[in-house]
Automatic annotation (TrEMBL):
Protein name, per record: Metal ABC transporter substrate-binding protein
Native organism taxonomy: Bacteria, Pseudomonadati, Pseudomonadota, Gammaproteobacteria, Enterobacterales
Family stated for the protein in its record: Belongs to the NlpA lipoprotein family.
Location(s) in or outside the cell: Membrane
Organism: Duffyella gerundensis
Signal peptide segment: 1-22
Membrane among keywords: yes
Keywords, sorted A to Z: Lipoprotein, Membrane, Palmitate, Signal
InterPro entries assigned to the protein according to its UniProt record, in alphabetical order: Lipoprotein_NlpA
């Protein structure tokens, strides 16, 4: 009896595996540049069936992933992912590091850092990791001095010197471009700057260095899907020389492929 059922069971297992591998890969991504890069991957690898959900403000792509509503997401860097794992009580899996979006300092009122007035109001992201990252950019720009180490999460309380008496205004990251006219300057994430029509490599008064940058944007999935052939295939596509070339040519230095930084 056992031998009689062995073949049908094996055949059923194979059919289930084939059905899973043939199913569309559901992935949530920020519209710019993430979804644009994924759309380019679709032209390179039409055999990989990608179902792309563009994220809107207020939608947490890690909650979607944890709930099984998507199979992967592509929008975040590792420090943010670690914060999310703690907040959600979930463990995720990094499938690939794809690109870096340098954080930039922008202004609609001044053209140079030297023109920043005393008492200037500077908007920064209010989430833990990007707030710390923004403060490091302000230090890199010579505007403030921080007492904390670059590896720790910093807050305005860590400012040890502030010669221009800058006022830090914390705002939700997606809202900062809209607030640009209401402050003297603003630190804006690369993707939100691009969505707002800014060109980081040209318009930023100061731009985060990409060298040894820990904030590479990631393809993230669940531990159970980490070895899924569709995930592995997408990860390989996103790290390919053709996608790196697309990122370089399409974003002109405002988005930097990780493969260039690591010389893969």
């Amino acid at each position: 009896m056992k031998k009689g059922f062995a073949l049908p069971l094996a055949a059923l297992t194979l059919l289930v595996a084939q059905a899973v591998n043939a199913a569309p890969l559901r992935i949530a991504a920020d519209p710019v540049p993430h979804a644009e890069i994924l759309e380019y991957v679709k032209t390179l690898d039409p055999g990989l069936d990608l179902n792309i959900t563009e994220l809107s403000n207020g939608v947490n792509a890690n909650e979607l992933l944890a709930a099984g509503d998507v199979d992967a997401n592509y929008f975040q860097h590792l420090p943010y992912l670690h914060d999310q794992e703690k907040a959600l009580g979930k463990t995720f899996a990094v499938a690939a590091a794809v690109h870096i979006e340098p954080l930039g300092l922008y202004s609609s009122k001044i053209k140079t850092l030297a023109a920043l007035p005393e008492g200037a109001r500077i908007a920064v992201p209010n989430n833990t990791t990007n707030l710390s990252r923004a403060l490091l950019l302000l230090q890199q720009s010579g505007l403030i001095t921080l007492k904390g180490a670059a590896t720790s999460l910093l807050t305005p309380a860590d400012i040890s010197a502030n010669p221009k008496k800058i006022k830090i205004v914390e705002i939700e990251s997606p809202q900062i471009p809209r607030a640009l006219d209401d402050v003297d300057a603003a630190v804006i994430n690369g993707n939100y700057a691009l969505e707002a029509g800014l060109v980081p490599a040209k318009d930023a008064l100061a731009l985060e260095s990409a060298t040894n940058n820990p904030y590479a944007n990631l393809l993230v999935t669940t531990p159970s899907l980490a070895k899924d052939p569709r995930i592995l295939r997408l990860a390989k596509d996103l790290r390919s020389p053709k996608v790196a070339a697309f990122i370089r040519q399409h974003y002109n230095g405002s988005v930097i492929p990780v493969v260039d930084e690591q010389h893969d």
